[in-house]
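for the record, two folds in this file. i put them one after another cuz i was lazy. first one right below, seq on top, C-alpha cells after. the second one comes after a little note so u can tell where it starts
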Amino acid sequence: MPYVFLICFSAAVSLSAQTQLVSDDFFPAALEFKELKGVLTERDLKDPADLGKLPHGPALQEAGFRRFVERTYTVDAGGQIDISIMTLGDSRGAYSAFTFLGPSGVHAGPPGSFCADDKDTLAFAAGNYCVRVHSTAAGDLVRRVAMSVANRIGNREANPPGLVRHIPADGCDSGSVRYLLGPLAIASFGSPVGGNSLKVPGDVEVAQVNCTSQEQSGILTLFSFPTIQLAEEYFESGSLSKNKSSGAANLYMKQTGPLVAILEGNISPETADKTLGSIQFSYSIKWIYDKSNRQTGTIWGVPVKILGTVVRSILFTGLLCLISMLTGALIAAGRLIARKHGFRAADTLIRLKLDEN
C-alpha cells in the first residue's frame, strides 16, 4: 500500500511539472523538427536592468517589457536559427514591439494574430507575446518553427489597438504601420514630421503609416492623447508648422476628439482632405440594464415596464375597493341578524347621542 501511494504521488508531481512546462515554454519539442540538431545558446532574462541592456530594451520597456527568452539552434544543413520570445504587459505592447522589430508587410496571421515576414525572418504578435524567428538556413523552416511556437502560445486577442483601427483603409498601406507607445520608441523608430523628430508626452500613442494615392505619396501620423483638451492644445499650438523646415513637403493637420492626424508628403489639398476626412472619432455609450428583465418592448407606444406598473396599481386599487365593500356588507348583515334576534346592543354602540349635553 505505501508503494502505491508513492507511485501516485510521484505521478502527480511529474504531471504537475509537465503542465507547468507546457504553459511556460513555447519552444519546439526536442524531436519535433529533424533539422534542429541541438541548442547552441539559451538565455532567459526577467530583471528590468538586464532587459534594459538589450537592443531597443528601453523602448520595449515603455511598452511593458517583462521577459525575454531566446534560443539558438544549429541546423542540420548548416547555419542556425534564432527564436526570440518577448513577454509584454498587454496586447498593445506586443503589437507595438512587433511593428518596429519585425519586417515590413504587416498582415493578419497565422502564425499569431498578426505577422510579417521576409526572406529569412518572421515575426508575429499573439496576445501579450511578440515572437521573432530568424534563420540563415534555406527552405520553409522559419515558418514551420514559427507555427509551432504560435500553436503552443494558443489563440489570443486578435484585434489591433484602437488607434490603428482609425487608419484609413483607402490609400494607406496598413502593412507599413508602426505603432509606438513612448518617447524613446518614437525617437528610435518614428519618422520625422515637418523635417523634425517627433516630441510628445509619454502618455501619447502614435501610429505611422505610408499613404499613396494617384502618384502622390506621404506619411500619415496619428496621435491619440489622453483627453480632448490636450489634443486641442497640441493642434492649436501649431508647433509643427512653426518648426517646419524650409525643404519639407506639404503638411496637413486635423483634430477630432482626442485624435490628431498629420499628413505630410507630395500630396494635393484635395487628396489630403479625402484622406483626413475619413478619420472620425465618436464615443460609444452602452446602457447598463437588468438582463433578467425581459419587458423591453412597448404596447401602444408605452413601455411595457411602465404599463405593467399602471396595471398593477389599478388591480391593487380594485382589490382595496372589493375588500371595503365586503366589509360593509358583512357589518350590515350582522346588524340585521342581531335585530332579528332582539339584540339592540349593536345599535346602541353605533348611535350618535347628539341630543345629550
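(here's the note) second protein begins now
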Amino acid sequence: MPAISIDTFFACSLMVLLVLSAMTATARILQPLINMPINVEVAQRLGEIAKRILLYTGKPVDWGQNAQTIPEEFGLAEAGAVSPYALDVDKVSRLNRENAYCLSYVQIFTSLKAADLSFRIEIKPVFNVRLNPTAIFEGSNETVYAFEVASEKEDGALVSTILRTYVLAESLLQTNDIQNFGGRTSFNITIPNTLPSPAVLIVFAKSMYNNRATSYAVYSLAHLSEPPRGAFLRLSPINHTLTVASTSSEAILRRVYALTFNSLWQLTQTGSNSFRIPVSSDVSPTVLVVFGTNATQPFVEWTVYPQVPIQTGVDFASLQSVSDVYAYEHLVSIGNGLYQCTIFLGGSKT
C-alpha cells in the first residue's frame, strides 16, 4: 500500500476511534485465549466494567495526586474533565511499577469491587518511535552517531510525523527538527569527546495528521561507561512533582531537566528530594532527565510524565485457570495527548 494511503488510513482511524469512544463508548472485543466462543452476556457485563474504569474518577476523586492515598473505589478518569475517556495523569502514573507510589495488584483488585474478576490494564502511545543506531564514527575531538528512526504502529505501518530531537548532557544542548514524511528517516548527531557527563538523545514524534497523537524515545549515548537505569536513583513523578529517591548513599544530583516537544526547562529543587514539573499545554509527554554523580562516576537517569507505557495486572496468556477473557480497546486522552488503552477482564473457571 502506498505511504500516503497508510497515512490517510491512520488519520481516519484516529478520528473514527475518538468519535466512537466519545459518543458511543464502543470497544473492540478481543479474545486472547484461543478456541473460546463469545458469551455475549459476559462480554457485555465486562464491557461495562471496562468503561467504568475509564469513565469513573474513583473515590476519592483525587486519589492519584496524593502519594499516600489508596483508592476506596477504582477509576482512572480525570475529575472535572469536559470530555469522556479523559484519564488523570497521576492515576495513570501510579499504575507504573517504576513509580514509588505505584498501586499493587491487590490494592487495585480490592478497589475494583469485582471479586470474581482478574484484570490487566495496558496504556501506550498510539504509535511507537523506534531508534536504531547504524554507525559510530570516532574522531580525535568528537564522535558522530548515525541513527535511523521510524514512527510506526504495532503492525509495522509507518506513520508520517514531525520529529524534534534533543541531545542533552549536563553542559550540552542540541536540537533539530525533521519532517519525517514517510515515517522513516535517518540523521546524525555529533558530541565532543571531552564531554564530562553522559548524554541522552531524546526524540519526540508528532503525527502530521493529528497532532494530539505523539510518541517519544530516549537513547543513552555511550561515550562514557553508563550503568543501567535505576542503578542510583528512582524517579517518581506525580502531582506535577518529581520525587527523586537515591538508591546509593553516594549519589549526588547535579542538574534536572524537563523536556516536551516544544519546550525545555531546567528544574529547581523545591524540597529535599523534589522538583516541580512545569504545567505545559504541549501535546507530548514530558521527559524528565536527571544528571548526577555517584562517588566519581557520572550518570544520567530519566523517566516520563505520564509514565506511559504501562502494563499492570495478570498475564492472562500464561494462565490456564481463567475463562471468558475479553479485551476492550479505547482511545483515551491523558493531558493533551492521545493514547491507546486496552483493558483485559476475565473470570474464574467454574
